[in-house]
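[step 3/7] inverse_fold.run input=structure_tokens len=110
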């Protein structure tokens, strides 16, 4: 279902090479998970929908916040109540990922 995408973040290339999911697929799932709820998602909801553990979610969310793809909504609340929403750049990245998936699906029909 997911394609072999790669892009550069902080000088590191996130490329396919993982056995089950690559970083791009995980980031896509996190962004799609956050996008699915107009109120935003909590870390617990993101963990469940993207099938990640807390350490992984914290790492990915930190990078996504620094890159301004995701923003915390009311970060002063406790961790259980804090929610994350997509920024305009995050919406644009989701659209690009979906376009890439669609284009590769058309190019490589199974």
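[step 3/7] decode complete -> sequence:
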């Amino acid at each position: 279902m997911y394609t072999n995408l790669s892009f550069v973040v902080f000088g590191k290339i996130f490329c396919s090479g993982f056995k089950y999911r690559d970083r791009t697929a995980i980031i896509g799932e996190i962004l799609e998970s956050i996008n699915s709820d107009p109120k935003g998602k909590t870390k617990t909801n993101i963990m469940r929908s993207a099938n990640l553990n807390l350490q992984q979610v914290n790492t990915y969310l930190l990078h996504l916040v620094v890159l301004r793809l995701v923003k915390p909504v009311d970060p002063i609340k406790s961790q259980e109540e804090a929610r994350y929403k997509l920024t305009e750049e995050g919406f644009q990245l989701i659209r690009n990922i979906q376009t890439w998936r669609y284009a590769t699906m058309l190019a490589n029909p199974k």
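[step 4/7] annotate
The CA atoms of residues 73 and 83 lie 5 Å apart.
The radius of gyration is 14 Å.
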